[in-house]
Amino acid sequence: MSSVWREEPAWRDRSRLFADRAAAGRLLAQKLIDFQGVDGLVLAIPAGGVPVAAAIARTLHLPLEPIIVRKVQIPWNTEAGFGALAPDGQVLVNEPLVRALGLTPAQIEAQVAATRQNLVQREKLFRRGRPYPSFAGKTLIVVDDGLASGYTMLAALKFLSRQQPREVIVAVPTGLLDTIEAITASTGAKVVCLNVCTRRPFAVAAAYRRWYDVADAEVLQLLAEFRPEGSSAHA
Fold this sequence. Notes:
The protein is an alpha/beta fold and about 240 residues long. It contains 7 helices and 8 strands; from the N terminus they run αβαββββααβαβαβα.
């Protein structure tokens, strides 16, 4: 039995399937249409997950909230990480990778401290000082633009599991099968992934015809569309 709850089987191991993140989100929404109007939320991992999640939230008529998780970067390679930091500050570390890299406790501590500072800054920027809503008893759809190592998604899921939601669905346009299997095994979350990839090397960008770094301004504009009227913002 596949570890992918819902996918497009004909799209396995294909590339350049999606025009951009918003188009991918609209396609994903069709796989989630039975969640339209449920008692739940769409949770977006910034920055790349926000355009995908906004398209899903519009179709499903659900609130959209950013969930701030951050990759803990390898000191000499800021594009890669050896773990992730959850919104409540808990650290998830890829222990086999740490051993393979030979990272010292001091290096790990320094990178986690830097990540923690960055997470606080992004909480202020994207959540505008608002606390997270109650997730207890809710259906949560957690969205990113793809799953590579999966550690930021895993950190988000571990955090959410502590909030006692009704159920958690991971929704991504593209993802590595090994990562999907690991997430399913460790969290029990259902994974919806249109473009499942079984081969390495894997790059999230390969699924998109237009790939770009999502600017903070775009994230803020999309989040503002879903912000309740009259909600306060703190500098």
